[in-house]
Amino acid sequence: MKDNITIIGGGNLGKSILSGLVTSDLFTPSDITVVDKSKYNLKEIEESLGVSVSQNIKKSIENSKWVILCVQPKQLNAVLQEVKEIVATDQVLISTVTGTSISEINQVIPKSKVVRVMPNTGASKKMSMTCIAANEDVKEELEIVKTMFDTIGETLVIEERLMQAATVLGASGIAFFLRFLRAMIQGGIQMGFHPHEAQIIAVQTAMGAATLVAENGTHPEREIDKVTTPQGCTIEGLNEMEHQGLSSSVIKGVMASYEKINTIK
């Protein structure tokens, strides 16, 4: 697969996807064009990643099989209006835009093939969790998009009705885990470690914990049991965290994000 790609939007998510794609075996920098309004962003992207850059959306998508939309929800309609007359039936729009359904995009561009994806910023390290949804009429393209995003991490094809939840769990989830990681680092500092030492320990511990669950295929509680001894310090800490509302706070935070995302347009 050597079809060209245009990424519209050079913000954090666009850069994260781009960083993964340019180091994959599927694409070379010459296959990819990034479109953004900011000359500063484009210069930085061109110099660091070697891809083509442009401020002209129409010209950039003319020869691209794949068009990845990485713009803010409030910017999407203007972009769709600008390209609706030139999008060809064999082109595929890959939308990362929060809160906008496939049918809403097709209302503006009826003939377009649309695949919704929700990666996260782990894409820049090939560690994204990308959820993907599409209608039945783009089955072939869906498989190619999945292959494309497999190059930057794990992928999961889901029903479109779950895309909002996937955004909260997979994309906002990056921030949630990082906030917990920060708290662990602060606890380490309070116990006497220097900040950089506490960060090294907490980060590697977090990576180890996630890897245990991922590679062993076990429930987190099974792995917790392995390090929780009777009357030990681990169970003491876990119980205090639960007394202070750790699990319920996380669940409430996730659900608050979910309620909010359903109002975003």
Question: What would your notes on this structure say?
Answer:
The protein is α/β, with parallel strands linked by helices and 265 residues long. Helix content is 54%, strand content 14%. It is built from 11 helices and 8 strands. The protein has an 8-stranded mixed sheet, sandwiched between helices. α6 links the parallel β7 and β8. The longest helix has 29 residues.
Quick description:
This protein is α/β, with parallel strands linked by helices.
SS summary, helix count? 11
**First-to-last CA distance:** 34 Å
Q: How many strands, which pairing sense, and closed or not: the largest β-sheet?
A: 8 strands, mixed
| Helix share, percent | 40-55%
Gyration radius over CA: 21 Å
Strand content: 5-15%
* Major sheet: arrangement of strands: 3-2-1-4-5-6-7-8
The shape, in one word, is elongated
Helix and strand arrangement:
Layout: E1 5-8, H1 12-22, E2 32-35, H2 39-49, E3 52-54, H3 57-61, E4 66-69, H4 73-83, E5 92-95, H5 102-108, E6 113-118, E7 128-134, H6 139-150, E8 153-157, H7 163-191, H8 195-216, H9 220-226, H10 233-243, H11 246-261
Parallel strand pairs: 1-2, 1-4, 2-3, 4-5, 5-6, 7-8
Antiparallel strand pairs: 6-7
Helix pairs in contact: 7-8, 7-11
